[in-house]
Amino acid sequence: DTAVSQTPKYLVTQMGNDKSIKCEQNLGHDTMYWYKQDSKKFLKIMFSYNNKELIINETVPNRFSPKSPDKAHLNLHINSLELGDSAVYFCASRLNRRDTGELFFGEGSRLTVL
Amino acid sequence: AQSVTQLGSHVSVSEGALVLLRCNYSSSVPPYLFWYVQYPNQGLQLLLKYTSAATLVKGINGFEAEFKKSETSFHLTKPSAHMSDAAEYFCAVSDTSGTYKYIFGTGTRLKVLA
Fold first, then answer.
1. How far is Cα B82 from Cα B64, in angstroms, rounded to an integer?
2. B43, B100, B107 member nearest A105 (Cβ)
3. Cα A64 from Cα A71, distance rounded (Å)
């Protein structure tokens, strides 16, 4: 049983399209994150939700919109895709926002914008 | 703000040789530090974590790290490299200053030579 699962794993699309990536965790955690990993493997935090409340919103273009329908799910919708959006997007969760323990990662969603 | 710096984006070692991956942190409060490993096309998984209980931390796959406050370092070591250790390694800090961020270093790619 996968703890943090993301769908789809691969996404290939044209510039200008809109796409969504879904994330679900079955760990009972309160806090979830989206990270973007670029081609140089640098991990950049994008958003974080704690029990459906947005707690971190980094300087991300407003074409990116996260949505958390409940604390077990955190989706990422991207409008008007650009070439520079090509990356691997990772969802992660932790027990709660004050927890000092580890992050649990999904396997990533590789987005390729043509 | 807390941060981590990884020295060396690429490290090559021979099979059986010592592995040393460097991480320095910046924090005005006691940090919570982590090492993660990422194998190709996978998410990150925890190798080990420092949460102030002991300065020498043992992790999975024979890795260990030593927290040195005087040097603000948390270097990762393994006495004898194995081919299966080839991966990307990330040092991370859990920000306890109230931002709820989990901040990653830029990563070090470990190559193991036969």
1. 15
2. B43
3. 19
Look at residue B100 and tell me whether its pLDDT is greater than 80: no
Residue A1 has pLDDT above 70, yes or no: no
Hey, which residues 2-41 in chain B have their CB within 8 Å of chain A? 32, 34, 38, 41
* Span B75-98, pLDDT tens digits: 999 999 999 999 999 999 987 776
Q: Which of B38, B46, B51 sits opposite A100 (nearest CB)?
A: B51
Tokens of B27: 């924090």
Mean pLDDT of A35-55: 92
Q: Do A43 and B104 touch (CB under 8 A)?
A: yes
Please give the C-alpha separations between residue B42 and each of A9, A97, B8, B18, B45, in angstroms, as whole numbers. Answer: 10, 24, 22, 25, 9
Top-confidence residue, A88 or A97: A88
Classify A78 as helix, strand or coil. Answer: strand
B residues 90-109 closer than 8 Å to A (CB):
90, 92, 94, 96, 99-104, 106-107, 109
Residue A95 contacts residue A101 (beta carbons within 8 Å):
yes
Neighbours of A91 (CB within 10 A): 27
Q: Looking at the predicted structure, is the pLDDT value of residue A87 above 80?
A: yes
Q: What is the mean pLDDT of residues A79-83?
A: 96
Q: State whether A56 and B109 contact (CB < 8 Å).
A: no
Interchain pair B43, A98: CB under 8 A: no
